[in-house]
From TrEMBL:
InterPro entries hit by this protein: BphY/WalK/GraS-like, HATPase_C_sf, HATPase_dom, His_kinase_dom, HisK_dim/P_dom, HisK_dim/P_sf, PAS, PAS-like_dom_sf
PROSITE patterns reported for this sequence: HIS_KIN, PAS
Subcellular location: Cell membrane
Alphabetical keyword list: ATP-binding, Kinase, Membrane, Nucleotide-binding, Phosphoprotein, Transferase, Two-component regulatory system
Protein name, per record: Sensor-like histidine kinase SenX3
Stored SMART domains: HATPase_c (SM00387), HisKA (SM00388)
Upper taxonomic lineage: Bacteria, Bacillati, Actinomycetota, Actinomycetes, Micromonosporales
Claim: Ribosomal protein is one of the keywords in the record: no
Length: 484
């Protein structure tokens, strides 16, 4: 650990982060760059940021020896989580004293001390920043706690701006926002404008008082959905305020996410209708050909028609299974048992479609430890990740599937040399129906369910999955399961 914090490097690096923000960048890329600046400045071996939502947390960014944890869920009932979310905002903690399995995992990786600071807005915890050190000396470098607390406050400010953060739609900042409230007089002038109204509309109290509402006023007792000039949607209701003066009370809230979900649903119906229609049309066409022209077809033609019908039927069955699984929010997982990951991978690769199987290069090291989970579900996981890699990469490039393990987890990686994934999309890619840029839907057809189902399946087995850009181009999808 250094004797003091390198403030010059910290200020220089932080200035570049601010330049990123001023140039229009936001969200995960900015957060990741900020962690990269902080780590060497405070002499940490690694850093990580955990985002918290009402349902729990998730590691969304990390550097150094903590990068393996990106994508890992954090249970709100885990003793370590409860410990971090209570007590002083900044704490110096010996890792071996952290209750639960995560403390042991960090020690196994040579990380023995942690400085943690909560990122808070108005008393609400949006996340926690962690700096890890290999020594367990309780003494700290000058300014170390202050710097970690300062950077945590900077991250909290990013959340208050809601520029690409929170990563998850159910983040606590969004969930805690009250509805906008306005009171208008009989002439339609604003008499009261609460802070939430200013945040929803972007108009301050000073800009709003004694002026007309910046949106239409629905009749009393009715509801109106209105699109603001910046493209966001709000839901507006109004009613008469009892008493003299003929005042009207108006409440409104941001429903942009709901509108996007409705659009996604409409897109999902359109895409799946097309996806279902294609194999059904091919199956019907070949079946009609066999029925009506059996005697005029050669034996080779009949076998080819039967083969195509079988292939398309398999595609149809897989698509229907994905749709049903998605509609029920994932089926309950089977009990976890130890299984041979290498053997399971070889069997799963053998079950892949022929064209995809020819591209796969499988690497399974000797002595690979057993994984704890559901072997049967591994075929689905590998098929979805392999199909995704196949769809977004050239057909003449290999798709590498690599297994590995350490003291705590067993992993598999699916790596391609395709178009890659943008850093700000590595979490959104797991959302249901999401398919990146709108152009991807035209160039890369699909319903946007594969990665969503993979995350559901893996997390049911107490594992986690993450995506990252591959050095030199392409994407790496990594699944980690508990060691059996």
């Amino acid at each position: 650990m250094p004797d003091r914090t390198d403030l010059a490097a910290l200020i220089t690096g932080h200035g570049r982060v601010i330049e990123m923000i001023n140039s229009g960048e936001a969200g995960l890329p900015v957060l990741a760059r900020l962690l990269q600046v902080v780590q060497p400045a405070i002499g940490a071996a690694s850093t990580a940021f955990v985002e918290f939502a009402p349902t729990g947390g998730r590691v969304i960014a990390a550097t150094g020896g903590a990068e393996w944890a990106v994508g890992r869920p954090v249970s709100p009932t885990d003793p370590a989580t409860v410990c971090l979310l209570s007590g002083p905002r900044v704490r110096d903690i010996r890792v071996d004293r952290i209750p639960g399995p995560i403390g042991a995992e960090l020690v196994d990786r040579g990380l023995r001390r942690m400085v943690a600071a909560r990122a808070e807005i108005g008393g609400l915890t949006v996340g926690s920043l962690h700096a890890f050190y290999p020594d367990d000396d309780d003494s700290t470098a000058a300014g170390q706690h202050e710097v970690v607390a300062y950077i945590a406050s900077c991250i909290a400010h990013m959340y208050s701006d809601q520029s690409g953060l929170p990563v998850h739609g159910d983040g606590p900042v969004v969930a805690a926002l009250a509805d906008g409230l306005a009171v208008v007089d009989r002439d339609g002038r604003v008499r009261l404008w609460n802070p939430a109204a200013a945040q929803v509309t972007g108009r301050s109290v000073a800009e709003s008082l004694n002026r007309a509402l910046p949106f239409p006023l629905p009749p009393s007792g009715q509801v109106l959905d209105h699109r603001l000039p910046d493209g966001r949607w709000i839901k507006i209701t109004s009613g008469e305020l009892p008493g003299p003066g003929a005042l009207r009370v108006v409440t409104f809230r941001d429903i942009t996410d709901q509108q996007l979900r409705d659009q996604d649903r409409d897109l999902f119906v359109a895409v799946t209708s097309h996806e279902l229609r294609t194999p059904v049309t091919v199956i019907k066409g070949y079946a009609d050909t066999l029925t009506e022209h059996w005697d005029s077809l050669t034996e080779a033609d009949r076998r080819q028609a039967a083969r195509v019908i079988g292939q398309r039927a398999n595609e149809l069955a897989r698509l229907v299974d994905r749709l049903l699984t998605s509609a029920t929010e994932g089926r309950p997982g089977e009990p976890s048992v130890p299984f041979d990951l290498g053997e399971a991978l070889r069997a799963a690769v053998a079950d892949l479609p022929t064209d995809l199987r020819r591209r796969v290069v499988l690497h399974v090291p000797e002595g690979l430890p057993k994984a704890l989970g559901s072997r049967q579900s591994l075929t689905t996981v590998l098929t979805e990740l392999g199909t995704n890699a196949d769809k977004y990469s050239a057909p003449d490039t290999p798709i590498e599937i690599t297994a590995g393990g350490n003291e705590r987890t067993v992993s598999l990686r699916v790596s391609d040399r395709g178009i890659g994934i943008r850093p700000e999309h590595v979490e959104r890619a797991f959302d249901r129906f999401w398919q990146g840029e709108s152009g991807d839907r035209r160039g890369y057809p699909g319903a946007g369910l594969g990665l969503y189902l993979v995350r559901r399946i893996v997390e049911q087995q107490n594992g986690w999955v993450s995506l990252r850009p591959r050095e030199g181009g392409g994407t790496v999808a990594e699944v980690r399961l508990p060691r059996g």
